[in-house]
Amino acid sequence: MRDDPTVVDLVTRARDGDKSAWDELVERYAPLVYSVCRRYRLAPPDIDDVGQSVWLRLVEHLPGLREPAALPGWIATTTQRECFRLIRASSRVEPVDLAESADVPEQAIAEEEVLRHERGTILRTAFGELSRRCQLLLSLLMQDPPAPYDEISRRLQVPIGSIGPNRARCLTRLRQTPALAMLAADGPDDRTRR
């Protein structure tokens, strides 16, 4: 995942001034910035401030980024640093370095955040490859709380007894999408060693 050709292409194009590539980078990694900020329990206006700082820093550093594939890690680390800077500057709370408090290096936390984000991106891509009917069924089953079977039956116009078998077929199709097949072949141990 760290050598994702899509990321390398987007970084290269954004570096060359392609606005659509820049927009796609922001759209792709805004959830990563948000998730790091939420871990520090920042208020929504503070999250917006951190996000703006991260994107501004990326504009400044994009031309000098030596390894385009390392962009997700750079974004996660920069977001953490911006969160610390904001917390210290606001003096509302005493800053706590989560990396030190857990005796885990900052880089390991950033890598875990990047991996979580990349897995989510892959899953959303795979989900988008499913039929609309499978997407709707799985969405209804995965919402919190899950929709009752009678509601699913009514909305999809299928018998209640066919919901389970349809769910199984949709999950099999999801597992067989190219994106998830690649993720499964990569193996969890291989991804964490990179």
Topology as a string of helices (H) and strands (E): HHHHHHHHHHH
Strand content: under 5%
Distance between the termini: 9 Å
Q: Which structural class best describes the helix and strand composition? A: mainly alpha
Number of helices: 11
The whole-number mean of residue pLDDT values reads 81
Taking pLDDT < 50 over at least 5 consecutive residues as the criterion, the unreliable ranges are 189-194
Please give the number of β-strands: 0
Return Rg in Å: 20 Å
- Shape, principal axes of CA atoms: globular
Largest pleated sheet: none
Helix content: over 70%
Family: Belongs to the sigma-70 factor family. ECF subfamily.
InterPro entries: RNA_pol_sigma-70-like, RNA_pol_sigma-70_dom, RNA_pol_sigma70_r2, RNA_pol_sigma_r2, RNA_pol_sigma_r3/r4-like, WH-like_DNA-bd_sf
Keywords: DNA-binding, Sigma factor, Transcription, Transcription regulation
GO molecular function, one term: DNA binding
Question: What would your notes on this structure say?
Answer:
The structure is a single chain. This protein has helices at residues 5-15, 19-39, 44-61, 71-90, 98-101, 106-128, 132-142, 149-156, 163-176, 178-186, 188-193. The chain contains 11 helices and no strands. With 194 residues, it is mainly α. Helix 1 crosses helix 2 and helix 7 crosses helix 9. The chain is globular and about 55 Å long.
